[in-house]
Write a structure and sequence with these properties.
By secondary structure, this protein is of the alpha+beta class. Helix content is about 45%, strand content about 5%. A hairpin with a 2-residue loop joins strand 7 and strand 8. One of its GO terms (molecular function) is peptidoglycan lytic transglycosylase activity.
């Protein structure tokens, strides 16, 4: 579920393999988009747009109040051709050897197999560069409208409608089982990997080994992130051994996220589903497994069936002091409606039946006025998948746009109105 978009222009069709020049052009374009779209986060405010950093979800428990920003999706990959095999005597290789030794006493892992696999890991210098903070970097201007334009595109909507029609029976059954709407699952998969068309081309073993034992020292949380990637490397080995996967063949994002939903290894192990019944959870090429795994992840992180994800809000009566108080908890649902009204925030009359806690979510628009919505527990659940409110809002709007297109094409009945939810 991790670092885990994560998504600029539509990818090259699967049957057209781009040459080196096109890959270099694609990388430059992707990274340019990534600076203002999806990326991998550490510990920024949840309302911040994605920035390049290290993954926190799906894969690790989320911090309850101050979420960061997204795991890099497959669209954020570097050129996978820059693998560099270090000498056996290098400190990096020595650390890998010691790491293999530390796992030797684990009865659930084959010591010889672990040693053999890790001895074939290659240091990827581009992965390290992509994780390295830019020197003298300034805060990126947050612009929700620009972010939205990059992700909620006609091409992504059209492809989403095709994916929905193709897997409609699975989406319907998964929604009935986990309570997560098909539109939300479509939104996540669409932003993460363009519905499985761009799942990444960096060898996962190399990405995780590089970041586990050569994480950029200039990063403000280098030690913490290196420990995180060491845990993910261990979980990757367990995942491959348990499911009969070839650790030398799996490819994904430069942070090690894999498959149609871009799960980190720990998330795959914890939340991966074998929905097609072939005996193992296979998120690389099984849309059914991916759809069910996304729903399972959101359900495990607090998704409430039948509840909306956000509401529009009227802030005309909120002064600057009240606004600061409402934004204080960031995107963690904290306020009942009575408290919101006390500080000048009003739900539209048709939505006042909602009895759950709410968070005021701010979406900045560069130098223009920001936009605001009230996020529910379900909005917060999406930010546990990828820790940015910009990401969550894009997921919801993409899914809504695809659903509208499906209804216009008469592939779906109109959505029923949301039933009043109990507190």
């Amino acid at each position: 579920m991790t670092l885990r978009p994560r998504p600029c222009p539509a990818p090259t069709p699967l049957l057209q393999r781009p040459g080196p020049a096109l890959r270099r052009w694609w990388l430059r374009l992707t990274l340019a988009c990534w600076a203002g779209a999806t990326g991998l986060g550490l510990q920024a405010q949840g309302s911040a747009p994605p920035q390049p950093a290290a993954p926190t979800a799906p894969g690790t428990p989320a911090t309850p109040v101050a979420p960061g920003v997204p795991v890099p999706s497959a669209s954020d990959n570097g050129d996978a051709t820059e693998d560099v095999q270090l000498t056996a005597a290098s400190p990096w290789q020595n650390q890998l050897h010691a790491f293999a030794g530390s796992l030797a006493g684990d009865p659930t892992l084959s010591a010889n197999w672990v040693e053999t696999v890790l001895s074939q890991a290659q240091h990827n210098s581009r992965v390290k560069r992509l994780m390295t903070p830019a020197p003298n970097a300034t805060t990126t201007v947050r612009d929700w409208q620009a972010y939205q334009r990059r992700l909620v595109t006609p091409a992504r909507i059209d492809a989403g409608a095709l994916f929905w029609r193709t897997h409609q029976s699975t989406l319907r059954a998964v929604e009935a089982q986990w309570g997560v709407p098909a539109s939300v699952i479509i939104g996540i998969i669409g932003i993460e990997t363009f519905y499985g068309q761009n799942t990444g081309n960096i060898r996962v073993l190399d990405a995780l080994a590089t970041l586990a034992f050569d994480f950029p020292a200039t990063h403000p949380r280098a030690s913490e992130r290196a420990r995180y990637f060491r845990r993910e490397l261990e979980q990757f080995l367990r995942l491959c051994q348990a499911n009969g996967l070839d650790p030398l063949a799996l490819r994904g994002s430069f942070a090690g996220a894999m498959g149609i939903p871009q799960f980190m290894p720990s998330s795959w192990l914890l939340y991966g589903q074998d929905y097609d019944g072939n005996g193992s959870s296979h998120l690389i090429d099984s849309p059914a497994d991916a759809i069910a795994s996304v729903a399972n992840y959101l359900s495990a992180h607090g998704w409430k069936s039948g509840k909306p994800a956000y509401f529009d809000v009227d802030l005309h009566e909120a002064d600057a002091t009240s606004l600061a108080i409402l934004l204080g908890p960031d995107i963690l649902p904290t306020f009942e409606q009575a408290a919101l009204r006390q500080f000048g925030a009003q739900l539209l009359p048709v939505e006042t039946h909602y009895g759950g806690l709410l968070a005021l979510v701010e979406l900045k628009n560069g130098t223009a006025a920001p936009q605001y919505v009230l996020g529910t527990e379900n909005f917060y659940a999406i930010t546990r998948y990828n820790q940015s409110s910009y990401y969550a809002m894009a997921v919801l709007q993409l899914g809504e746009a695809v659903e509208r297109k499906m209804q216009l094409q008469s592939a779906l009945p109109p959505s029923p109105p949301t039933a009043p939810a109990a507190p």
